[in-house]
Design brief:
There is one protein chain. The protein has 699 residues and is of the alpha+beta class. It has 6 domains: 36 residues, no CATH class; 95 residues, Sandwich (Immunoglobulin-like); 79 residues, Immunoglobulin-like (Sandwich), CATH 2.60.40.10; 111 residues, no CATH class; 244 residues, Cathepsin B, Chain A (Alpha-Beta Complex); 84 residues, no CATH class. 18% of the residues lie in helices and 34% in strands. The chain is built from 12 helices and 43 strands. Strands 31-32-35-39-36-37-38 form a 7-stranded antiparallel beta sheet. Strand 25 and strand 26 form a beta hairpin. Helix 3 packs antiparallel against helix 4, helix 4 runs antiparallel to helix 5 and helix 6 packs across helix 9. The protein is elongated and about 130 Å long.
């Protein structure tokens, strides 16, 4: 209601509540109507506005941001929603950030600019006196730049250089979902996968990757390479082989396809002669000075020289090449090394091979690609995805896409062990670095009858083009590579052989250099915090009775983040499910044995404590099978002093029955409560000898 008091031509109107009032003034036949909006001059709430466009954001509303900063302003709001001036300073605080994220504020009195440090969800709070309001900010990762690795490269004329493109967001961080790149190049050609092939002319050229209007460029120097004798290769005694190699080498390089033809040509008469074998060994040696991609030389060297993997092919006896070897043996070894035709033995009769139609990398390799299946290789998967999460290029550098349905995969070999490096324990190779070695895999992957992958990528369809394959292919390659005797395992081409291991060995075999090993109980949590802040890959292994926060015993995890507010660490389970709740340092010390830190930034392009667990299905549901976590070590491996006592216990009781013995490894097919402990006497003797050696080394 409103009351009116008249005094001449002046009217005083009294309102009894906040509302809109229609006022009519009449004089004779004349009238005029207008509206009076009666509101309070005292703000009752706080409004947050986008500086751009001065658009108000509802309390607890959201706004999308594609840059690194965003501007806000605030104003008091009356009961009727009108803006009112505020007195005093407005204080901004951060209530929520993405893992590891932060936000800062800069105010000029009218506008506050918020600066974010990474993409993700933020919740901000503005307060002025007793008034406050929140806003949810979704900082969208936006393609801002593209890096090409290597940024500066050198290649001989008519030779190839593999380039990798990576899209970065506005914060310089790799995008979780990489765009499709289009490649262009000068001075040569470049494939859709970034394989640059130089032309005949030397000079300085460029290769560029482009997506969504953003371009990244690499500088390439093409060097003139002089072939032997102006195109004729010297040092080869067999005339037919010399002529063929000279023809292929006219462009100063031997390609993979050309090497396959050279090798098969020596088998064309069904016998490999002494001259042919000597020439082939010379061809792939460094003494020949014949240029070829590193992976081609590595594969061919494994084939023509003695290698334990040559002794068997598809489950049958084969052999190393000798003068007089059959053409059949040569062709089988070509199929084995260059075409990936010798598939690892699977773990169950219910699993068979099927050609997968997915892509090597559907998106950028990441933590989320892990989905461990019916194979106890959690240590292997945890190592690879921890590296992928910190440096995607380190994973891409492992692979060469041969663009014929096969992939060459690089591992590094060497004597495995640990040694003191100052006050730290360097874990991986006893020399600190390994030697590159190569194996080829095809698209056939272990699957169930419905086409679902049985091991890495468990349950994902091998027949789905959107299935990413890199982790399953790496797992398969690791099983095949085991047959070379360079992986530090039992030397068989089987999946069972790669069950059980420790992450530092895999880190070294993937990166080519060592990680650092830490005992959880004798290490400060700041070591792990600093490693995460530096972008290093951190993995750990749980004790057999671990349970805190949902931990699985005898299992490998990836440590992904530290939250200072809650003083807790976030762990990722390579099963891709049953991730534990965030754990504090005391819980980690009570339920884990050790952790490993790897710096994956040093990876270059290609050209044993045991933790193992697996996932099995029961009535279509996931059920964990935890296998043995042993503190055994490789034959020449030294251990930290606090773990010497643990060497006296060769194996903790596996939680499994139906145990089939396979040399020094055990295969667990079903989870039953029965405890089974089996020790091979030769294995125990080896461990005693190792212990004496390690005690001597530590002394």
């Amino acid at each position: 209601r409103a009351t009116v008091q008249l005094s001449g031509n002046t009217a005083t109107i009294n309102f009894n509540r906040l509302a809109d009032y229609q006022i009519t003034v009449k004089s004779g036949k004349l009238s005029h109507r207008f509206t009076v909006r009666y509101d309070s001059a005292t703000p009752v709430s706080l409004g947050i506005f986008n500086t751009s466009g001065n658009q108000r954001i509802a309390d607890a509303g959201s706004v999308n941001v594609t840059g690194r900063t965003h501007g806000f302003s605030v104003a008091g709001l009356s009961p009727r929603g009108n803006t009112l001036a505020l007195s005093g300073q407005t204080q901004w605080t951060v209530l929520q950030t993405p893992s590891g994220g932060s936000a800062s504020f800069q105010s000029d009195g009218l506008r506050t600019t918020v600066t974010f440090d990474r993409a993700g969800q933020y919740v901000l709070r503005a307060a002025n006196g007793d008034l406050a309001s929140t806003v949810r900010v979704n900082v969208v990762a936006t393609l801002t730049s593209i890096t090409v690795d290597p940024g500066t490269g050198s290649v001989a004329a008519r030779s190839s250089l593999q380039l990798q493109a990576q899209g970065l967001d506005q914060f310089g961080r790799p995008l979780d979902r990489q765009p499709q790149f289009s490649w262009t190049a000068t001075g040569g050609t470049i494939s859709n996968s970034g394989l640059y092939t130089a032309g005949a002319n030397a000079g300085n050229f460029q290769a560029s990757a482009r997506a969504s209007g953003v371009t990244g460029t690499a500088a390439i120097t093409v060097q003139a390479a002089q072939p032997q004798g102006g195109g004729t290769v010297s040092g080869l005694t067999d005339a037919n082989l010399r002529n063929l190699v000279s023809t292929f080498y006219a462009d100063n390089s031997i390609t993979r396809q050309e090497m396959i033809q050279i090798l098969r040509s020596s088998a064309s008469d069904q016998v490999v002669s002494a001259a042919e074998l000597a020439d082939l060994r010379f061809l792939v040696s460094s003494n020949s000075n014949i240029q070829m991609p590193a992976h081609v030389r590595g594969l061919a060297s494994n084939l023509v020289n003695d290698n334990p993997a040559n002794l068997r092919f598809r489950g049958q006896a084969a052999g190393n090449l000798r003068a007089g070897s059959s053409g059949t043996l040569m062709n089988n070894l070509v199929d084995k090394w260059f075409l990936g035709a010798d598939l690892p033995t699977v773990t169950s009769s219910s699993i068979s091979y099927r050609a997968a139609v997915g892509s090597l990398f559907v998106n950028a390799p990441s933590l989320n690609d892990s989905r461990q299946g019916q194979l106890g290789d959690c240590y292997f998967l945890a190592s690879l995805v921890s590296i992928a999460e910190r440096n995607q290029s380190a994973i891409r550098n492992m692979f060469v896409d041969n663009e014929d349905g096969t992939f060459t995969v690089r591992f590094f070999g060497g004597s495995l062990g640990m040694f003191w490096l100052g006050s730290l324990i360097s874990a991986g190779f006893t020399t600190g670095a390994g030697v590159a070695d190569y194996v080829t895999v095809d698209r056939n992957l272990p699957t169930y009858s419905n086409g679902g992958l049985a091991y890495s990528g468990y349950g994902r369809s091998a027949l789905n083009a959107s299935t990413t394959l890199w982790l399953a292919l790496a797992e398969k390659a690791y099983a095949q590579w085991n047959e070379t005797g360079k992986s530090g395992r039992n030397g068989t081409n089987t999946y069972t052989a790669i069950e059980g291991g420790w992450m530092s060995n895999v880190n070294a075999q993937v990166l080519g250099y060592n990680s650092t090993y830490y005992s959880t109980n004798s290490t400060s949590k700041q070591v792990m915090i600093n490693a995460l802040s530096a972008g290093h890959a951190v993995t750990l292994g749980t004790t057999s009775n671990a349970s805190a926060g949902g931990l699985v015993g005898s299992h490998a995890y990836v440590v992904t983040a530290y939250n200072a507010a809650s003083d807790s660490f976030t762990l990722y389970n390579p099963w891709s499910t049953q991730h534990p709740t965030p754990l504090n340092w005391s819980q980690l010390q009570g339920h884990t044995s050790a952790f490993v830190i790897a710096n994956p930034s040093g990876s270059v392009n290609s050209g044993q404590s045991t933790v193992r667990s697996e996932m099995v299905t029961t009535s279509g549901l996931f059920a964990p099978v935890v296998e043995s976590f042993t503190n055994q070590i490789a034959n020449d491996q030294a251990f930290a002093p606090e773990q010497i006592d643990e060497l006296f216990e060769p194996s903790l009781a596996p939680l499994a029955a139906d145990v089939s013995q396979n040399q020094d490894h055990q295969s667990f097919n079903h989870w039953q409560p029965t405890e089974v402990v089996q020790h091979d006497s030769g294995e125990l003797l080896d461990h005693c000898e190792d212990l004496l050696g390690e005690l001597s080394l530590l002394a």
